[in-house]
Design a protein that fits this description.
A hairpin with a 2-residue loop joins strand 9 and strand 10. 20% of the residues lie in helices and 35% in strands. It is α+β, with helices and mostly antiparallel strands. It has a single domain, classed as 2,3-Dihydroxybiphenyl 1,2-Dioxygenase, domain 1. The protein starts with 9 loop residues before the first strand and ends with a strand. It has an eight-stranded mixed β-sheet with strand order 2-3-4-1-15-18-17-16, with helices on one face. The protein has an eight-stranded mixed β-sheet with strand order 6-7-8-5-11-14-13-12. A two-stranded antiparallel sheet has the order 9-10.
Length: 283
């Protein structure tokens, strides 16, 4: 998809910490529809196409339950290729009676919300065609209207759910941050994203290449929210994929000039936003 490939910078992978690896694997395989690509005693890499890691989960040795009112993950968002795929997974959720936390028609997309056994938020969505999106004064119109579930289910036309389609993507990530202006400076001035929508003074939606959003930032856990403990369930890190080495190098240089941390780790570069969210910068 054009918004998740060159020349766009996009979210490619999310890494989570969980309390019980086997319990989480059961959820992500049987409820969400991932396949295991690699597994060790304490970690697992999950895929939709059998080669690309979209989600990595790990069980730290001294892990503690998810801490409330902290910075970190609000939800990560799985982007399905077609509306009919959203209909199939919705039918699957309803058939197994898995508790959903919400659903919405955002006009740019249609979304279903739920959480994993540890309380990590998940959005499963499909996009409308970009030609159908409305832009006003440089911002995309993106409300939270009621979802027409019956119309989406009608897209299934007898098809059955068989897990995530191979061309499923990590669509975006939504983060709790401690302060919006510091976060804006880091993500917009530092990483080079563009603000495409604002939600009053509570949230920012940012993207590259005029997507409706690759990253969202909110202060719903309170201004000045504390960082979670390193061993807490929740977000370990997420990965930004750059189109080429030159853009990554320029971005790292800019972050350093702005006094944001950048360090090398396992042939990648890593930075940390002002709210403690760790980001892997890859090409």
């Amino acid at each position: 998809m054009v918004f998740h490939s060159k020349p766009t910078t996009f979210v490619a992978q999310v890494n989570l910490k969980v309390l019980d690896l086997e319990r989480s694997l059961t959820f992500y395989k049987e409820i969400i529809g991932f396949n295991i690509l690699e597994q060790t005693e304490h970690t697992a890499k999950l895929t939709a196409d059998g080669k690309t890691v979209l989600l990595e989960i790990e069980q730290p040795v001294d892990v503690i339950p998810k801490q409330q009112r902290t910075t970190g993950l609000y939800h990560f968002a799985i982007l399905l290729p077609h509306r009919s795929d959203l209909g199939k997974i919705l039918k699957h959720f309803l058939q197994i009676k898995y508790p959903l936390q919400g659903a919405a028609d955002h006009l740019v997309s249609e979304a279903i919300y739920l959480a994993d056994p540890d309380g990590n938020g998940i959005e499963v969505y499909s996009d409308r065609e970009a030609s159908e999106w409305t832009w006003e004064n440089g911002e995309v119109v993106m409300p939270s209207d009621p979802l027409d579930a019956e119309d989406i289910l009608a897209e299934v036309q007898g098809g059955s759910w068989k897990g995530l389609p191979s061309d499923t993507l990590m669509g975006h990530i939504h983060l709790h941050v401690s302060e919006l202006e510091k976060s804006r400076k880091f993500y917009v001035e530092g990483l080079g994203f563009e603000i495409v929508s604002k939600y009053e003074n509570h949230a920012l939606f940012i993207s590259d290449g005029r997507y409706h959003h690759h990253i969202a930032l909110n202060i719903w856990n309170g201004v000045g929210a504390a960082l979670p403990a390193d061993n807490s369930v929740g977000l370990e890190s997420f990965t930004l994929m750059f189109p080429d080495e030159e853009k990554r190098r320029e971005t790292c240089k800019k972050l350093k000039q702005m006094s944001f941390p950048v360090y090398e780790n396992n042939n990648s570069f890593v930075t940390v936003d002002p709210s403690g969210n760790k980001i892997n910068l890859k090409v």
